[in-house]
Amino acid sequence: MATTDNLGRFEQTVLPHMDAAYNLARWLTRNDHDAEDVVQEAVLRAYRFFEGFQGTEPRQWLLKIVRNTFYTWYAKNRGQAAPEHLGDEALQVPGNEMSLEEVLSRDRGKKALMSAIESLPIEFREVLLLREFEGYSYKEIADVIEAPIGTVMSRLSRARQSLRTRLSGQKIGDFI
Description:
This protein has eight helices and no strands. Helix 7 (about 140-145) crosses helix 8. The chain is globular and about 60 Å long. By secondary structure, it is mainly α. It is about 65% helix and about 0% strand.
């Protein structure tokens, strides 16, 4: 049975990392709704096992749970889950320093990059996200995905090479 102290400690430890958890789930599932489901299930799992949490890195611990929850979800929904493209963010035109043509070109580059990342195999997408978007070290990524550092380095290298290949010939501005 959960105590108020345990719930408060859980909230203080886990809730600050919800954005990172959602970002990882979003990139893995490629769908907002599915990402929300995965994160919700992951948080329930994290709470269920929180008393046994001994680590000093709650963010890594939570992301490991999100990743494992995703793989469980993926195994159950493989035939049902249809990937969905990332929603377009509102086109924000900066001040007068950029023309509309430059803004549209940059937007196309961003969409091309996002599409290329989404098309990567899951094991490449997750290491790329953790390194480039979450700023994790190789060691931290290795802990989250439960793999040797050499595997992390290899996957990251292959992910970057695959992105270069997929984006070659496309102008993507400042997004790589």
